[in-house]
Amino acid sequence: MLKLWANVFLRRQKEHWLKFLMKRLCLGSNALKRRLGLGNSVLKVRHMLDNNALKAKQNLGNNALKSIYTMEKNALKSKQNLGEERIESKTHIGEERIDSKTHLGEESIESKTHLEEERIASKTHLGEERIESKTHLGEERIEGKTHLGEERIEIKTHLGEERIDSKTHLGEERIEIKTHLGEERIEKKTHHGEELIDSKTHLGEERIESKTHLGDERIESKTHLGEDRIDSKTHLGEERIESKTHLGEERIASKTQLGEERIESKTHLGEERIASKTHLGEERIEKKTHLGEEHIASNTHLGVECIERKTHIGEERIYSKTHLGEERIEIKTHLGDERIENKTHLGEKRIDSKTHLGEKRIEIKTHLGEERIESKTQLGEQRIETKTNLGEQRIEYTVQDGMMRLQYASNTTAQVDYERGVEDFRRRLVEHYNDNSSNVPLSILDQSLDKRISDIYATPELKRIEIAKDGTRVKKEQILKYKELFYTENKSNRRIYVQGEPGSGKSTFAAKLVHDWSDGNQPSSAAPSKNSMFDDVLAIRKFKFIFFVSLRDSRGHTDVMHMIKKQLIDTMYSEQKRDVMYMLLYQIIETEMCLVVRDGLDEWMAPDGSNLAEPSMAGFPNDKCAVLTTSRPWKLADERIKNSQIDNLLEIEGIANPYKFSKKILRCILLDDSKDLQTIANDISKFISKRKLTSLSYSPMLFALVICTWVDTIDEEEHLNGSSLCSLWATLLESLCKKANDKTSFFNDSNPPPVKCFSSTSYLRPILQNVNAISNAAFHLLFSHEQDTSIVFNDRILSNYISESEKEFALKAGLLSKRKTKKASNASISFIHKSMQEYLAAYHIAQNAHLVDDVISGYLSRHKDAYLDISQVFIFLCGLNISAANTLSVVMNEHCSGMMYSYQSIIEAGYREAVLNEQTGILLRLSHFRVDKNNLGDVQCIWADNTSNAQVLEVTVYEETDPVIHSSHHVEFNLSSCHKLKTLKLHGRCILLKDSSSSVSSAHPVLIVLNTADSGQCSDHPLVLPCIQHIELDADVKCSSTSLRSLFNMLLTLDHEVLCNIKDCEITSCVEDKVRGSSANTQANITTGVNNTLHISGFNDSTGLWKVLHGLNIKSLSLIDTHESLNVNHTESLNQLLSSLTNLTTLYIKVNNDSPGLWEALRGLNVKVMSLGGLYLCLNLNHVDSLAQSLSSLKHLETLSIDVYGHNPGLLNGIHGLNIKSLKLGGMAMNHLESLSKSLPLLKQLETLSIYLKTYIDIQLPQSLKYLNIYCFV
């Protein structure tokens, strides 16, 4: 019943737990499904198979759990049956083990008792045997040691005696040997001495034959000394042998006695030790024998007692064991009965207890089963949870693996997509360049008439510019290859700048480079160019991409990356694809080799508030990207563009072969094939030469314009108006306007042209109102406050200046170009060319001259160096309205600073343009003049109207190569009105400095004329150069002595210092209007100062220089020579000069070494103050007498200072009797103090004395002396 109830209970529990487990499994399954759902949302369709596999694994997990539960249930039952069987078997085994252990215990006690008895008996017998053996061994060891001690003593005694005998014998033998050796050595020495004496005697006899009787005496003395020495040595040897023999015998006797005494003492000690050891051995043997006997007796007694005791104990044990055996049998019989009773009773109890235990065990097992089921349930839940987690992890891993696979596939796809995108981008870029950059207009007259750049391109004249360490830029070799752009001496150039004047071909060169790159990246490239220049296209095809950016279309933008997006990507791709291409652009820039071409840096303007000199290249890695920039030269002169930022600077100077270029143009535009190309090319060449347009042939833009205009009028037999830029651009303007209005009308006396260059046009008068409106816009845009919209603007800004109809006319005529941008409502507009805008702006200024003061003056004040930016406007204005140009030149001259000679080139170009347009009243303002053989003629004309404004005049002419020099007798620069001139520099042998009074004819091409009051005479009159500060005459410049004398006479009257450097200057003298002759080239650095002071240093002894200074109003003169010595060869000339200086009161002379001519030139002067010394410390005085004579002649001298090395008494004699009031005698030493003491009292007027001494002495001083300064050298 109990068992049935337990089974029912277990079944219910199992069902309950199974339901619970199924519920948990369902929850786990739901959780897994939810997570799988999330995984499905991530992996989508590609992870459906993984989801199905996971569900299958979940079903397998459920089945596995069920089978595990069934197996556990069966195992529980089998374990319960096995437990009962094990209890029965263990009870039976326990009873059997108790019986066997009782029997084994009794047998073990018996065996151990018998073994202990046998061990006691054996140990007693072994003890006795060990005592006997040890006693016997002790006696034997004592006997052996005693015998060994006696033998060792005998041996040592015998050995001692033998050693003493042997040593005694050896001592005697050694003494005998040494005695014998001593005798032999004495014999040998004696014999040797006799031989030496004989040999020396023999030699002496031979030498005595040639000597005096002194030789015989010396031999006798030496022989006697030898015999004495031998006797003494023999006697000493015998005494030493005797003493050594006696000492040896005494030492042997003492050692023998000591040996015997030691043997006796050792023998006595040995006998005593043996006796004591024998006595101790006997005592020890007696003791051990007595102890052995006692031990044996006690052991024997103990053995007997032990045997008797053991026999009695054995008998007692046998009796007790017999009695115990009987008792044990009785007990065992009784115990057997009791055990049977007990076992029967225990069996009954065991059956009852087992039944009770079985019931308890069933209850316990039931409880344990429940606990196990609970634990298994928990384990199952944990396993389910673990498997759920593992499933989730596997899902995560699967998701991650899937994502990684997706990422890998994505990367692979991305790489493929990237390569595909790169190729597509390159293809589109090549197509874009082929459509927009590879075709250039044949002429700016007609932008639609474009040709392939390879058909009309002419090789440019491209030269490398080297930037020196001091910043100087020097043109070097011509560049002929692309590689030379990007590499300099195998060093990679990252930043390349190509500069050139307007129209020189910068943009065309950049377009040709892009075309060569595009042409090489097409599937079927064209055949290579026959031109050997720039044919190394592989040098540019190393760039995976070339990005061409027009900076004029991005004014106000600072980022090149933004420009590429707007000008290239936005043009090539639709709005939907632009964001993707922007990202691809960033990736390309980081990965591929790229070249960015920035065209027209001078047309780019940074936004307000920005100090950038050029657009930023942010985002372009230095190792992957190179930059090529084109610009006008003035832009690269900006100080913000550092020399260190330029890796390679090049200048393009137009086309290398104009004739070849003209043939290419003609080949493209001639429609009549019957006309001979060669003949027409020759006609154009003659036309250009006749019209003096050769300079324009090096500008591709202007040259193409001339050719196209000439070809357009070839059938009408028309001619170009002159060779001026204004005429050329007037022709261009008319040609463009003709496209918008073909009506003709001429300017005449009733309707005069607004400017002279319009007079021959026929298409401008009908549309003059439109031209005026567009010119107004060109001016106000060019000079607007917002510079970022001055070149490129929009419709809104343009509407401020022109109407819609006027704008339509400009677009139709081609004066304006309109480009579509990203925002259709904000198109970019610009003039067809910046020069066109500048020309129209100049035309507007010519019609409204007040704008110079009202607008342009403020514009120049707001912007630093803006005069460079408007230089082309000024040049055009010179040809259109010279009056307005004159006013503008004054304003520009006021605002230019630091770059005066750049401004001069602008003025020169404006002057030439005015002359070509037959302008009158040319009064262009210029204050700094730099003249050379290239601009001599133009600058001479500009100078004539600017003498009162000139501040600097620098003339350099070495060779007579200028055409102006050959066309006229000479070029003259008159300085008569140069009231503001500060600097005058003359260099070159072709220059003559003369005064206006001289009528001498000269073959010198350049004359610099100084004004004098009375012409025709070599008189000395001051010049009117009140502001002059620096004069430089160098490199064989020839000067008349009268002009120089007039110059210095004027300089002495100024209230400031003037520095005049004369180097290799040839001074001529004029007499009766003829050049009498010239002195050797003169060198001197002369400084004039206030109060008529003249300082001359670094001079040579030139008669020309002394004659120039003759008679001038000089009050203080300093002659300082920087050479080692001043050799005055022209004493008379120098003396005449010094004598002619009637107002001279102070004379300073500083030279290292003197010369007699120098001192002779000083004789008889009326100077009051004189100082003589060396250039650094003191003067090396070599001609004392000459100086003394000169000093004695200076009767008016009041102050004298002399600093010389080594004073001479003759020098002091020269000052006897002079009225000197102040005297300074310097130098490193005063060697003639006696003479000094005698000379000083003779100076009756002396009030102040300064003297330098080595040691202080008592000097006799004059009574008139008031101040005394003595300096002692240590």
Automatic annotation (TrEMBL):
Domain of life of the native organism: Eukaryota
NACHT domain residues: 494-603
Gene3D superfamilies referenced in this protein's UniProt entry, alphabetically: P-loop containing nucleotide triphosphate hydrolases
Ranges in a coiled coil: none
Pfam families xrefs: NACHT (PF05729)
Protein name: NACHT domain-containing protein
